[in-house]
Amino acid sequence: MQRQTRFSPLRAALSVLVLLALVAGAGCRGRKYENPITADTEQPDKVLFDKAIRDIEKGRYEIARLTLNTLMNTYDTSEFLAKSKLAIADSWMREGGAHGWAQAEAEYKDFILFYPTLEESAEAQMSICDIHYRQMEKPDRDPAHMLRAEDECRQILTQFPNSRFAPMAAQRLREVQEAISESEYRVGAFYHQKGAFVPAANRLQAMTDHYPLFSKADDALWKLADSYGRLGPAFRARSIQAYQRIVRDYPLSPLVEQAKKQLTTMEADIPEPDPVAYARQKYEIENATPKGFMGRSFGFISRGPDVSMAAKSGEPTMTRLRPTLPVSIPVTGEGGVTDVTASPVSGASDQLDSLPDARINAPKPEESKPPADPKTPAPPKQ
Prior knowledge:
Helix content: 55-70%
Order of helices and strands: HHHHHHHHHHHHHHH
Strand content: under 5%
Largest sheet: none
Low-confidence stretches: 1-7, 23-40
Mean pLDDT: 84
Structural class: mainly alpha
Oligomer: single chain
């Protein structure tokens, strides 16, 4: 009897729970069952998309792409359609390699073509810029990816100027142009060292005019001025301009005092430093990020260029560097033919219709005669 009394509270609690379940079941009877998977639900495509994202995060790129293609082919009105197309490109990007990056670039360009107004289009264009940025070679090697990276990064600033990726693209563009400038600078410095001052001046003039943010622009201008000075009195004015640019546009350069001495010797005006250029150069010096110990020690085995000294302020150049006219060729107005025009001949068609064809009365070619027999005696001269 005591054992039954001990378990009576437990039995009472179970009875109350059973009674509550019966009441709840009676109250739910007659309500429509809500199936979470209906015709207009977004759950199936969401499940596929989440599964593909998990596969991408775990490195199962091929399985993720198959899942995303299934989503796009099955649910053509899904809100995850654009995200799925972008995820396919991201999977190729993460897979990497020459083949993977080529496929990723094609997928990103398709995404921008189909969804040009989405914010993700700017992200896709930024990824294309990164693809070529990662494949850049050193300045003394193939510049193909450097030039492509410059074009693709510039495209972000022109097509998506208000995007959140615009500041990142501007800095990336400055770094790419630092590598391109270094390539041109090395060629010009090589010519200058070998005494080929005409090609040296040609290279350095184009580079300093086109990429003023180059970290070694002051040294390039110094070599440019020296090249012009060695070409004779005809290039004295250009030499003065190069020295003046060092003083005016790079006032914190260690070459400023030497440039002033050269201008004094040449009896030329010494310009005042540009305050905007002074502020920009001061900012660059204060925020410079030189290479660390590992970069200095093992930088020679790296594939890409060193862009640690790239500018962090200033507007990057928005056009590509084009070949210029060599300084040894006279410009317009210094002699030679400078004005060539072309105009149709009036009345030419009437003359062709009225005058006889000259080919009809053309003289016939003389009939070929057989060669004379060497044994036949020549006719006597009259």
